[in-house]
Design goal:
Helix content is 41%, strand content 19%. By secondary structure, the protein is α/β, with parallel strands linked by helices. It starts with a strand and ends with a helix.
């Protein structure tokens, strides 16, 4: 198994160090042959190579089985032209490797429900999956332009792009509670009209799945009002980006949420949702659990080792159940650990 680590910027190197520990613990316990390589992406790549990602790193990523990413971007590079910013490295990685399906689970552990700003009864036992289309829509649409007086972007989707992401969502719903909500803005956007038509057409292949359509503004409100009404949500790149961040905060901390971006063959890019968090970078306080759970998703989706994935998830739950926490999820009686201490503890539990 070949895994490429791309720590990137901000807290990325800190959380990727802990991911490395977990991978090695898993390899030791289950006697797996895992090769780990590491390289640059984002701002650190700009500093070193004058580009947010090199052709050599793209080639490494293509030859690996899975990629673990820390995060890209930070204030240091904010004044660069849009085309040269660190985020362009991540967008190119997603695009060149055709990682079109982004899976973002929002799971509320009972031990962390008190950390949410919402009432416990609203988020307790929440288990929600957001499926976001990742390589199309307004982030990639052409033409796009910015002048001193105006700017524009293009939101565009082909029927095939909508069909393949909706199939991922329906398949996910079939493995869960057979309930899917498709989110769009079909009352004002033609691209959303097509989105809704194609999702309806795809649903004919999945008669067991109960399909609902919802406008994105209402979906945002409903996620906060009654998130447990949802099981699987599917949406476009832009809407999915926004909704998944709302979903992340339902659980109490964005530091708890993993994600997977998959291609047609389940090769994956795995990363925490929280980004680079430059305000806490280098302080040893970032929560590594989102990245550790991203490693669990890697073993589940790319390597199809569900037992390994379950053991990592159980180790995380064991740490939380025993009262350990990083500062973002700490309660009054928590034993607060640093990033490194939490990663080492969960690694020990895995072994």
């Amino acid at each position: 198994m070949n895994v490429l680590l791309l720590p990137g910027d901000g807290v990325g190197p800190e959380v990727c160090n802990e991911a490395n520990k977990i991978i090695k613990a898993v390899a030791n316990r289950f006697n797996l042959d895992i090769f780990i390589d590491e390289d640059l992406i984002g701002g650190v790549s700009i500093d070193e190579n004058k580009t947010p990602i090199t052709d050599e790193v793209i080639a490494k990523a293509k030859s690996s089985d899975a990629i673990i990413l820390g995060g890209v971007g930070g204030p240091k590079w904010d004044n660069l032209p849009s085309k040269d910013k660190p985020e362009k490295g991540l967008l190119r990685l997603r695009s060149d490797l055709k990682f079109f399906a982004n899976l973002r689970p929002s799971i509320c552990f009972s031990e962390t429900s008190g950390a949410s700003s919402l009432k416990k009864e609203i988020i307790e036992d929440l288990d929600l999956l957001i499926v976001r289309e990742l390589t199309g829509g307004i982030y990639f649409g052409e033409p796009r332009e910015k002048s001193t007086k105006s700017a524009f972007n293009t939101m565009i989707y082909s029927k095939d792009e909508i069909k393949r992401i909706s199939e991922v969502a329906f398949e996910s719903a079939m493995k869960r509670n057979k309930k899917l909500c498709s989110v769009d803005k079909a009352n004002v956007l033609e691209v959303s009209e097509l989105w809704r038509e194609v999702v309806d057409e795809t649903s004919l292949k999945y008669p067991e799945v109960k399909l609902e359509h919802m406008l994105v503004d209402n979906a945002a409100m409903q996620l906060v009002k009654d998130p447990k009404q949802f099981d699987v949500i599917v949406s476009s790149n832009l809407f999915g980006d926004i909704l998944s961040d709302i979903g992340s905060m339902l659980t109490g901390s964005i530091g708890m949420l993993p994600s997977a971006s998959l291609d047609q063959d389940s090769k994956g890019l795995y990363e925490p949702v929280h980004g680079t968090a430059p305000d806490i970078a280098g302080k040893g306080v970032v929560n590594p659990i989102a990245t550790i759970l991203s490693v669990a998703m890697m073993f589940k989706y790319t390597f199809e080792l569900k037992q390994v994935s379950t053991e990592i998830e159980f180790a995380v739950k064991q740490a939380l159940s025993n009262g350990y926490a990083t500062q973002d999820i700490a309660q009054s009686n928590s034993k607060i650990l640093s990033t490194e201490e939490m990663g080492s503890l969960i690694s020990d539990y895995v072994q």
